[in-house]
């Protein structure tokens, strides 16, 4: 699995803008309590990015809501090769345990299975998925 330079830039730019209160001290040695943010990067097979976007638009987002997957946002690169085949999104969960339960319920949902199968009748849409759990910094406005 190759590393996407965009992954680090997006995580840094979206989740850790400098908005700390003056004089706020960082929490020492502690991970902040709160939401778990998951950054996901999908590399579509050639010519399949629009079909992938359609699947999210028409099915996946609604099923995410049904199963407790909070959508933060979706992005596509504006230029370069990745603009042709990359979808990036961030979702949030109250905890890692809630994340595991939500993904399992989503994967087991017959409606998801049918939507996925229908969307892939002309070929598999995604060739690679990268996923990273992120925790906001103590100075991030997203907590």
Strand percent estimate: 15-25%
Distance between the termini: 29 Å
Number of beta strands: 4
Q: According to CATH, what is the class of one domain?
A: Alpha Beta
Strand count, sense and barrel status of the largest sheet are: 4 strands, antiparallel
User: Can you list the strand order of the major beta sheet?
Assistant: 2-3-1-4
The helix count comes to 4
Class by alpha and beta content: alpha+beta
Name the helix and strand elements from N-terminus to C-terminus, one letter apiece.
Answer: HEHEEHHE
Q: Could you say what the CATH architecture of one domain is? A: 2-Layer Sandwich
Roughly what percent helix? 25-40%
Short description:
With 143 residues, this protein is α+β, with helices and mostly antiparallel strands. The protein has four helices and four strands; from the N terminus they run αβαββααβ.
Report on the structure:
The chain has 143 residues and is α+β, with helices and mostly antiparallel strands. It has a domain at 42-137: Alpha-Beta Plaits (2-Layer Sandwich). Helices cover 36% and strands 22% of the residues. It has 4 helices and 4 strands. It has helices at 5-15, 49-66, 96-108, 110-119; strands at 36-44, 70-75, 86-93, 126-134. Strands 2-3-1-4 form a 4-stranded antiparallel sheet. Helix 2 (49-66) packs antiparallel against helix 4. The longest helix has 18 residues, at 49-66. The two termini are 29 Å apart. Mean pLDDT is 83; it is low at 6-32.
